[in-house]
């Protein structure tokens, strides 16, 4: 594990590279994007497993999270999108990586940002783990005002939406690579309808893989059995 620093909008983001023990050229790459009010450490176990399978991984703290700079109370979705773009660009300069084989793995809020990233940079595949969605309005307002656990946000997510209704759904509709959507069967934050909206947004259904983790909650913190289940699902999809 190699600590790194990434610059985004004048802020310093803390990150960690994970390399396979046996390094060679053109290694496949995974960019890990954590959820709201979370941190990169939540992905360390997954990153270690993926590196053992030959992937280079970058886990990082979004602005205002973990060890990264910035005030979470003032940062906008535009700021956070700039974070993931900066992390992607930093990752692309890594040693021995295949810049044409970059997979995005995002959880909840991180999945939303990952979806937006596919419109900004070249991505081979994306894994959307309990993906949140947000209205286009307020993109340049402090995101904390629309954070995902608010009842109003959850109610909004329970409504059917077309693929052009939000920036994230539109991005996934335009995306041509492989898409994995992992749903938690007992998710109290992201309703099933949000998952349906994302699935319907995928233009080429042959590129879509949808898996439901029965009885899993939205956050898997403290649920080691579900964490292991997700890691098995993701690794199986990446290695197929």
TrEMBL record:
<comment type="similarity">
    <text>Belongs to the AB hydrolase superfamily. FUS2 hydrolase family.</text>
</comment>
<dbReference type="InterPro" id="IPR000073">
    <property type="entry name" value="AB_hydrolase_1"/>
</dbReference>
<dbReference type="InterPro" id="IPR029058">
    <property type="entry name" value="AB_hydrolase_fold"/>
</dbReference>
<protein>
    <recommendedName>
        <fullName>AB hydrolase-1 domain-containing protein</fullName>
    </recommendedName>
</protein>
<feature type="domain" description="AB hydrolase-1">
    <location>
        <begin position="28"/>
        <end position="130"/>
    </location>
</feature>
<dbReference type="InterPro" id="IPR050261">
    <property type="entry name" value="FrsA_esterase"/>
</dbReference>
<dbReference type="Pfam" id="PF00561">
    <property type="entry name" value="Abhydrolase_1"/>
</dbReference>
């Amino acid at each position: 594990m190699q600590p790194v620093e990434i610059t985004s909008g004048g802020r310093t983001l803390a990150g960690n590279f994970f390399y396979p023990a046996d390094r060679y050229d053109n290694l496949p790459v995974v960019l890990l994007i954590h959820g709201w009010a979370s941190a990169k450490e939540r992905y360390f176990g997954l990153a270690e497993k993926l590196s053992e399978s030959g992937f280079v991984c970058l886990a990082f703290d979004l602005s205002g999270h973990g060890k990264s700079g910035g005030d979470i109370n003032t940062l906008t979705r535009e700021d956070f999108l700039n974070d993931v773009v900066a992390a992607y660009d930093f990752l692309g300069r890594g040693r021995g990586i295949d810049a044409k084989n970059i997979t995005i793995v995002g959880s909840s809020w991180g999945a939303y940002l990952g979806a937006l990233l596919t419109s900004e940079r070249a991505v081979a595949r994306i894994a959307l783990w309990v993906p949140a969605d947000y209205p286009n309005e307020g993109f340049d307002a402090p995101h904390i005002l629309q954070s995902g656990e608010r009842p109003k946000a959850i109610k909004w997510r329970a409504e059917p939406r077309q693929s052009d209704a939000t920036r994230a759904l539109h991005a996934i509709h335009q995306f041509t690579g492989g898409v994995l959507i992992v749903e938690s069967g007992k998710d109290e934050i992201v309703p099933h309808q949000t998952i349906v909206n994302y699935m319907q947004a995928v233009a080429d259904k042959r590129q879509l893989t949808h898996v439901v983790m029965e009885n899993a909650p939205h956050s898997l913190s403290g649920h080691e059995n579900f964490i292991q289940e997700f890691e098995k699902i993701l690794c199986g999809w990446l290695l197929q």
